[in-house]
Amino acid sequence: MHFFKSAAAIALLTGAYVVSADTGEKGDAPVTENNSDKVVYEAVFSSSNIEAARLNFTGTEDGVGVLVHACFTNVNASQPGPYLYHVHDFLVGPNKNCTSTGAHLDPYLRGELTACDVDAPETCQVGDLSGKHGKASLDARKGTWCTSYVDKYLSLNSDDEAFIGNDRSIVFHNINKTRIGCGNIVLANEMSGGGSYPSPNATSTGEPPIATGGAARVGASGLALGAVLAIGAMLL
Ligand SMILES: *[C@@H]1O[C@H](CO)[C@@H](O)[C@H](O)[C@H]1NC(C)=O
Ligand SMILES: *[C@@H]1O[C@H](CO)[C@@H](O)[C@H](O)[C@H]1NC(C)=O
Ligand SMILES: *[C@@H]1O[C@H](CO)[C@@H](O)[C@H](O)[C@H]1NC(C)=O
Ligand SMILES: *[C@@H]1O[C@H](CO)[C@@H](O)[C@H](O)[C@H]1NC(C)=O
Ligand SMILES: *[C@@H]1O[C@H](CO)[C@@H](O)[C@H](O)[C@H]1NC(C)=O
Ligand SMILES: *[C@@H]1O[C@H](CO)[C@@H](O)[C@H](O)[C@H]1NC(C)=O
Ligand SMILES: [Cu+2]
After folding, report:
1. Using CA positions, which residue lies closest to atom 5 of ligand 4?
2. 56: which residues sit within 8 A by CB, 6+ positions away?
3. The overall pTM is greater than 0.85
4. CA of 137 to the centre of ligand 3 (A)
5. Helix (H, G, I), strand (E, B) or coil at 178
6. 164 within 8 A of 42, measured Cβ to Cβ
7. In the record, which residues are listed under signal peptide (predicted)?
8. Per-residue pLDDT reduced to its tens digit, 38-73
9. Is the beta carbon of 176 within 6 A of some atom in ligand 6?
10. CB-side exposure of 134: number of CA atoms within 13 Å?
11. Whose Cα sits closest to atom 3 in ligand 3?
């Protein structure tokens, strides 16, 4: 905390041009460790606008990061896509109320001002899964579309700020950010009637995610800020 405040002060004193905070007030998200591959969390939900959403979260062999599988089935074609999905702070409310889920999981206080830069995922909101790994394709309107990836910043450990098991939820949005479905993240072995996973017929091709627009982090300014922080660190 002190480091960042001091570094910012030095940046101002040296006249460096700092555009805006590209990363969290509390810094970048650290890469998580000790995520057991025996632990499985899941979120399964449906709504009038999505027939099924199934996500699971498991640890990895080396414990670094969390392996995410996400499948979305038959999104109502009246909803504009591609679609966004995130880990949100709170549980779904009564009658599947997605507003009750609050904001995105953002333990390092990045905020919403600038869009997530896929090339610098450590600076993104921890919960911004579609920002870091790509939006759900329009193919999710025509059957089941799936994707999977390791997210290095989610945690399955309750003492980690990026833990997703402490009454968090997943919210699925249309491209206008309207919340069109949501479900709670639960420990899989505590889930009732989990059901089987659909086999996808429209699997992610690993295409690069499309930028959401908005002020994406500019490489040069990022480098400049990095240099300023490095100088700050040397002076401290
Ligand atoms: C991971 O576990 C090891 C062994 O228990 C421990 O030394 C280390 O501090 C843990 N790392 C984190 C980030 O919790
Ligand atoms: C899809 O959305 C339209 C417009 O909101 C609605 O009229 C229709 O009933 C929805 N379809 C289903 C299957 O829910
Ligand atoms: C997670 O989801 C994927 C894709 O639907 C599925 O193949 C896999 O079996 C699931 N893993 C667990 C542990 O449930
Ligand atoms: C949904 O939850 C929000 C926030 O908790 C609340 O303000 C709103 O009244 C709820 N809407 C419905 C339809 O219950
Ligand atoms: C996926 O399956 C559904 C239902 O069987 C079918 O209507 C749809 O065309 C398929 N989608 C793709 C991309 O093959
Ligand atoms: C999404 O935004 C577009 C452009 O602002 C608007 O025309 C459309 O009605 C919106 N659709 C929904 C479902 O919110
Ligand atoms: Cu969201």
Report:
1. 100
2. 40, 41, 42, 43, 68, 69, 188
3. no
4. 19
5. coil
6. no
7. 1-21
8. 999 999 999 999 999 999 999 999 999 999 999 999
9. yes
10. 18
11. 69
Domain 24-215 falls in which CATH fold? Immunoglobulin-like (2.60.40)
Domain residue extents for the chain: 1-19+218-236, 24-215
CA distance 157 to 48: 33
Taking CB atoms and a 6 Å cutoff, what residues make up the pocket around ligand 4?
A: 93, 97, 99-100
Looking at ligand 2, which residue's alpha carbon is closest to its atom 7?
78
Question: For residue 58, which atom of ligand 3 is closest to its CA?
Answer: 13
- Of 142, 146, 203, the residue with max ligand 5 atoms within 8 A of its CB, to mutate for a pocket test, comes to 142
The pLDDT > 70 percentage for the chain reads 71
Query: How would you classify the pairing of strands 84-88 and 169-173?
Result: antiparallel
**How many whole angstroms separate alpha carbon 152 and alpha carbon 19?**
27
Which residue's CA lies nearest to atom 13 of ligand 5? 202
What phi and psi, each to the nearest 5 degrees, are found at residue 97?
-70, 110
